[in-house]
Each structure stands twice: as C-alpha cells, then as structure tokens.
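User: Hey, quick favor. My workstation is busy. Could you predict this chain's structure for me?
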Amino acid sequence: MTTNRLEAFSDGVLAIIITIMVLELKVPENHDLAGLLHTTGVGLLTYLLSFGYVGIYWNNHHHMFHLVKQISGGVLWANLALLFCLSLLPFTTAWMDESRFEPTPVVVYGLNLLAAAIAYFVLQTVIIRLQRPDSPLNRALGNDLKGKLSPVLYLVGIFSALAIDRAGRIGVGTALACFVATAIMWIIPDRRIDRVVRQVETAN
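Assistant: No problem, here it is.
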C-alpha cells in the first residue's frame, strides 16, 4: 500500500483539531485590551501551546513519510492511535484553560502529551520494522535524543503537578515549564531527516 491516503487523512484530521481548538476561544465581552486579556488571555496561551504541538507533529509526520514508500495494516493502526491521542488535545486544552491551571487538568494534559509521544514512537517503530534495518528513516533518526528526552520531561511535569505544592502553583508551574520546554526543543529545526531525504532524492 502507498502512503497517499494515510497522509491525506492525517492532514485532514490535524487541520480539524486545530480548527476545534480555535473555536474554543471565548470572544471578549468588552471590546478593549483589558477585556481580551481577562476573557481570552489564558485561552490564547493554552491554544498557542497546543497549536505548537499539533504543528510539531504535523511537521515531523510530513518529513517522516518522505522516507516511507510502502505501509502495512500495522502502520495504519499505529497512525490512527497517534491521531486519536492528538484529537484529545482540544478537550484537555479547554479543561486546563477553564480550570485556570488546576493540578488535575494539567496532569491530564501532560498525560495526553505523553500518550501522543508514545504513539508517535510506536508509529516510527512499526515503520522501521517494515523496512530494512539500514532504511533511510532508521538512519535519519539515529539516537533520536529528542524523542527519548520528551517523555522524561512530560513525566517530570506530570509528577510535579501531582506531588509538589498542590495547594499552590509551584508544581503546576514546573509542569507547564516542562511542557513548554519540550515544545521549544522540537520547534528548533532538526535537519536529520531533511539531509537523508535530499540524499535519497539525489540517489534516485
């Protein structure tokens, strides 16, 4: 099977996820900056964070499938698992926003991010097993330091929100810092797959 329908379906789902998230933003009652900050300020920040994560996954998914020519049923199901995890982001983002960063919604948001990271790792693993051991994708990923560090940061954030100063904001602040730091780490361009894609295209 080729990747055309999988990529088209994934692009459509991710576009819908972003659309749902922006529709969750509340329109200010007062038409001034103070009204915007009071009514929509927190929502804009959580939307920006979740938009960044969806964009990161779309970007990495797009680059990865440049190195995938054939897929199997296992790849289809692994891709659906990833999309399922990402489709929960509008809900967990809205809950975190409406609670004004209460510990439980922040923990659930972190679990959502962790589940998406695991699902993406499973998708990569299934694709690599389908290909030969020296496949371009496996070569491009290398040690995948960022992929290994991300779940650690999510877990640190989750346990911080659970265990540190639940009556205050230190644990939640630490958790949000971990989530933001992970997003920033992935926004920084990673040229590994780009280099391998160019090598493959040149060889062909």
